[in-house]
Amino acid sequence: MAGKRRLSWFHVAAVVIALFIALPLYWLIASSFKGAGDITSAAAFPPHPSGANYVSAFSGYSFGTYLANSAIVSVATTAAVLCLGTLAGYALGRLPLRGKTAVMTALLMISLFPTIAVVAPLYLLMRDIGWLNSYQGLILAYTALMLPFAIWILRNYFLGIPREMEEVAYLDGASPLRTVVSVILPQALPGLFTAGIFTFVASCTEFIVALSLNSADRYRTIPVGIALFGGQFTTPYGTIFAASAVAMLPIAILVLVFRRAVVSGLTAGAVKG
Amino acid sequence: MAANTLERRAARRGWVFASPALLVVGAVMIFPVIFSVVMSLSNVTVTGNGIGLSGITGANYSVLVHAPRYWHAVEFTVAYTACTVTVETVLGTVIALVLERLQAGRGWMMALMLLPWTLITVVSAELWGYIYNGVYGVLDAITQAFGGQGLNVLGTPASAAVAMGVADIWKTTPFVAIMVLAGLVMLPDDVTEAARVDGAGAWTIFWRIRLPLLRPALAVAVMFRILQAFGLFDLPYVLTQGGPGTSTESLALLGYRVLFNDLDFGPGAAVAASTALIVLVVCLAFLKVFRAQVGEQKG
User: Fold this and answer.
1) What does the alpha-carbon distance between residue A123 and residue A141 come to, in Å, rounded to a whole number?
2) B238 at A interface, C-beta within 8 A
3) Which CATH architecture does the domain made up of B60-298 adopt?
4) Whether the predicted pLDDT of A108 surpasses 90
5) What pLDDT was estimated at residue A271?
6) Which of B7, B22, B45, B122 best tests the A interface by mutation, with the highest count of A CBs <10 A?
7) Domain, as residue range, for A101
8) pTM for the structure as a whole
């Protein structure tokens, strides 16, 4: 054989790590194809593979509604966070604001706060304005929840853009907003991707706020829908896993396609530290 | 003078740009935090169309102080955070070291490691609940195949806590590993190279040179994880329902139940506010220790 490569300890370790991560995921996918009779089977491969769970998730349970709700809330939240976050990130990163260090520190602390601390007042607030069980209520809550971290990511990207570009635009007579939109924004595109993906994934997976604000079946997001799928005593695992596989797919594809942006976002903190 | 005016105009524009975001965060995040603290210090009465607050009182906190269930939740959350974060940090560092050495297939491994991170925690809780199931779970099937007996890990307080920790470690260790790997990649090669030339072994190089240099990256990862672990809610809500009994009830789960199941807004707000306070103290303490160590190195 050509190219004899020695198998060293880290190759073995890498395989162990990969199995540790992949096996539970495999179990989720495999079990989603187990029919009602097989769900209690521990066989490595579904004895009678069937798509019945996928049908029942949409027909027997209102998973289609949850999917749509999650899509609406996550897309709207991401759009709102990117609009507001870009303007704020630009201002805090590049403009001579007094006390911006204080603002950034405050934002960092807020983004790290345990959500339980805000859930009750948020619930009361939304109830007072009649936004419990609505899209706008959850979108507003998520926008506020995700903005601090997004502003941090965006500000870091804005800091890295050469200042001359803005000055040229200014000398050409472009308005401030115009400068941001057509000169700065294209430069900050990787940052926008990163902030956007983080916001999107966080809004798709968030549980406690969605559970508190939108518990009515009509407005449940995927996590709330799946958590409340079962009755008191039985858990319809097959249906849950089929629904989970469907929910996982778009998020996983998005994250894998924009892997670089995600990794750079995860390490944004490390770079500063 | 012109420059000064320009500067002032830029600053004004800055606030115009920043204010929509800051207003939203202020109204929907900061105001609720303050309101939560106020609520925890008031007599709260639940009325037909809202709640009434009156007076300033420590009654809500004294309810907590005298509730064993609260102290148990504090203990559980702190112990759980300490254990899971320690294991995740060590394991994550090991994984990062392995990946760093890996020439082929690193991209695939990174992709694989991102998957648990994208998984909805509720889904991962359901998945582990299925694996741990005491009647037909695959874990018991495996132990029985090796001649053991069914474990029913969710059946006893200690094993349920460990089982939940494993589910948590599975989902978040890859996240730690990616952050540590990013730190490893950025370490300067020349220092390690110099040590190697001087005859230092791989082990010495790791402990004496690379680990100290890695400390900032590790600190950020650990901090992230401590904060997340303290907010622990989704996993016990779905996987153990805080049980058996209230043995795996985290502070966030207790707070949620007191607020939304018992509708005891005063004590509930006190649980929430005290959780936030504990997180703050832990983080400040962590930062202080970390800073002190960094300072020592420089000095």
Assistant:
1) 10
2) yes
3) Orthogonal Bundle (1.10)
4) no
5) 40
6) B122
7) 61-272
8) 0.89
